Amino acid sequence: MTNKSTARRAGLAVGMMAVLASVLPTATTTATAAAPVSGPAATAAPAWCPSVPGHKVDCDRMERPLVAGKPALGTVKVSYAVVRHRAPGLAKGTVALNPGGPGETLIDKAEGVVWGLEGLLKDHDVLLVDPRGTGKSQRIPCGVTDAEYRFGTRAQQRAAVERCGKKLGPKAAGFTSAATADDIDAIRARLKVRKLSLYGLSYGTYLMPVYAARHPESVRNIVLSGAYPLALDTMARPSAQAVSLTLRRVCERSVPVACDGERAVKDLATTAARLRTEPLTIPITTGHGIYKKKFTEDKLANLLFEAASSGVGLEPEKPSLLGRLPHALNRFVKGDTAPLRKLVREEGESGSKLDQAPYIAVVCNDYRRDWSKDASRSERWRQYRAALAAVRPGEHGAFSAKGFTEGTTDAGDVCIGWPGENTPAPQPTKPRLPNVPVLVLSGDLDSNTPDTSGKKAARQFRDSRFLSVRNMGHVPELELSRCAAGVSSHFIRANTPGETSCLRSLPPIAVTPVRG
């Protein structure tokens, strides 16, 4: 789900609309002025309400309990916008969208949403909610920035998580998927919408099943794109295994053939092993300063499965991080570190000062772990190390188990210092879900939320269909022909994906040739 930094499965997740905004054609239609939202106490549109060409947009804020049942902890203001349909008469339905994260904003991407869902917006309204603590909603910072968290060593990441938890104190319990789901449903009720079509991207594919379990009577159908299941793998093995598969696929499909997939995987294993004992120090320049990034096996893992999955297939003919990796890995093995250093510097330029409370708190509260949240620190470490030791050789592909899990920003041991006191139990992994039509999409070049994870996400529901999108990375809706978005829109309207042949005919991405 993820600005360039928001490509994570469950981390600063992909912003399909943020990426699209940089390549969208300039709008030429006249914007319709935003109008006040219908319902109780309607007021003039707030200044932050987006203006979208060709559409009326209604905006408002709703005050919600920060932690349900604990009024002493106060409230939080949650902002939302409703992009109205174009055709006359009542809307045929309302789509509630979440673009990922946790922590990704949506209201500021309203114009990109309209471009991506143009066909659906003919007769459907789209509800955009900035989850609590993000965007136009009320912020509750914990003092950990995006750049600090991403560029820090694993020990520094664990320390940042602990510091964030201490700063939030009892308020940390206000950041959960359940709380966001309840916020969305309260807004649905205020808008007097009987049922929602749920549309989740990246982390949104975790959030929307939580909503469906908590409010089954309010769900019409569901689309999940770039999906993973509620019972996610605590050791991130599906992503580790997908990295090698993805390298093989981009090499095999390159025209003309630019690299050998098996050679690329061997180069990756050699590079990971070398960085395990001989890390690189790479200066990263962002708009907020210069950071010295210690590039170790875990940072290589993060680059390969998170960053390299972002934006793949958006503009397939142009160089991408994934398409340049076989060459960079090969040069590194031969003693030339410059190409890999360049990729790391470019990816790091997106580091920001955005506070990470909505991300850290949600993943540390919600995701299942290899330890009990009520255990002591020493007991947590004992439980975690036992789980890590039980991982079979080869389960993390070209990486060591420790190296790959430490490359994740939401799995492994990163939350081991998160407070157990005053925080909720992890989200149930097998809740009772409504029997509604569900469509799950995955890009077959996505190592972040790979096909294997998407299939598991689909199996959570009785009436589901899984579709793999060829030559696309994290969140297939990124591609500019709107093939994937068209399939999703058709499903929301008719409970069937309709014609899907375009999902198998998207062009391969450009790959830098490996010489010698």
TrEMBL record:
Ranges in coiled-coil conformation: none
Q: What keywords are annotated for this sequence in UniProt?
A: Hydrolase, Signal
In its keyword annotation, does this UniProt entry include Hydrolase? Answer: yes
Q: Start and end of every AB hydrolase-1 domain?
A: 97-249
Question: A cellular component term (GO) from this record?
Answer: membrane
Q: Where is the signal peptide?
A: 1-33
The Peptidase S33 tripeptidyl aminopeptidase-like C-terminal domain is annotated at 413-497
Example GO molecular function term?
Answer: hydrolase activity
Pfam families from the xrefs? Answer: Abhydrolase_1, Abhydrolase_4
Q: Signal as a keyword?
A: yes
Gene3D superfamilies on file: alpha/beta hydrolase
Superkingdom in the source lineage: Bacteria
**Record protein name field:** Alpha/beta hydrolase
Species, as recorded? Streptomyces spectabilis
